[in-house]
Amino acid sequence: MNFRSELEKIFVAEENIPDEYKLISEIHQDEYLSDGKMIGWNGPVHEVYSPICIRTENGLQRKLIGSYPVCTEKEALESLEAAVKAYDNGMGEWPSMAVAERIKCVENFTRKMLDQKDIVVKLLMWEIGKSYADSVKEFDRTVEYIYATIDALKDIDRQSSGFRHEQGIIAQIRRSPLGVVLCMGPFNYPLNETFTTLIPAIIMGNTLLFKPPKHGTLLHYPLLKAFQESFPRGVVNTIYGRGHAIVPALMQSGKINVLTLIGSSKVANELKKLHPKVNRLRAVLGLDAKNAAIITENADIKLAIQETVLGSLSFNGQRCTALKIIFVHKNIAAQFIEQLNAAVAKVSFGMPWQTGVVLTPLPEPHKPGYLKECLDDALAHGAQIMNENGGTAVASFVYPAVVYPVNKKMKLYSEEQFGPVIPVVPFEDINEPVQYVIDSTHGQQVSVFSNNKQEVAETIDQLVNQVSRVNINCQCQRGPDSFPFTGRKDSAEGTLSVLDALRSFSIRSLVATKLNDTNKELLNEIVHGHHSSFLSTKYIF
Fold first, then answer.
1. Fold for domain 74-286?
2. What is the pTM of this model?
3. Which residues of the chain have pLDDT under 50?
């Protein structure tokens, strides 16, 4: 049996899918949340086909799992007006609400969210092909992030509960919301990455327009009722449709105060330019990345192989933090490639519900074709596919390819492949990969593998001002969520970690007065009588 036939066998007939992983029925979303109401939709819809193909008499076919509304600019602008009205220049119910009360609303939402865990996890698996185990992890990590956000906000509020006295001025300094947030998440972590912006934006008192990603839309549908029942009218509004058809008008309105997008820098740049009052627009962006691994002659090769495979192929390499280009010293290149090929061959592949599976079908229909273009381009410029069966594709599945030697003439040298292709570049002098990082338009992270203290120290000092995280003898990664997560150059704007995200979606505001008997009495009366939501000495436990 040839390898292509072996790959075809991973796709099974409908009756061979284990019952516990099946969707009970197709999910056809015919409503959306806007202005506190679930609004019915009978217009055009987008049919959602899973990357999981089903074996049929007519060959392999992507499974239809549901559909969602394709709304127009009209519906998007109506949702925008609902968010603007709910914010009401900062005087609406939500932005005016005490922090403790906003926290209660988010806690209520989280309890309702947990009730929907089973269906959300299954939709994660079916919509984007993520393994069932990783889909469960994504849901659980999202819930953990919400509770960590609540705890961080309590800490911020406790620190702000007192008054500061400086140079004859007494003041209370608190964080206040920014306004209307347009939130657009990515398809690769459609729940977690979306909620790492959505939750801090809401809990800080902003109102929200939420556009789910194209791949990973349906999984948010079971949560719409929870949003509706947990927050005041107009605080959370969902918008659906083609991004190019509905988002430009939202930006051109000038009523969006914060743009949060996890996607491409090209899209982010185009959207920012549309805003008529760009100085009023705050952007919180997670964008492109071409994270490099630098494996020196002094590296522990076994460890470097282990971390390279994890970093390059976890969720098929479709992570912004994935290792997307590997620089290896030419003196160990042959040994490294041989061991890398052996390690890749051991990575399990198959359907998402299989225990221990790592490589699964790809959600983007065009991705197998794009990866083939990259491989053909690399071969045309002198590279080889080093591992057996590398790059073999069947339907939505692509088997990983180790490509060597990669050079700057190739797409794989500069383009973010976002898939299971591992480009390997030989180098003689460590300044070569360092210069690559310096010249790159991306600046998220880098991994350095070496056990030579002087080499590591010098490389850290060269790279720490080029990227936002230098990883020593380990893969690039986001976590822990309490650590800063951002990027330089075209890779990010704003910082996404638990504490920093709360800061990103708010601004410090203060109330101040000269310290004299009259003003002391006035402030005491306001605080002790609970006449102001802002001025308060309440301590949240």
1. Aldehyde Dehydrogenase; Chain A, domain 1 (3.40.605)
2. 0.95
3. none
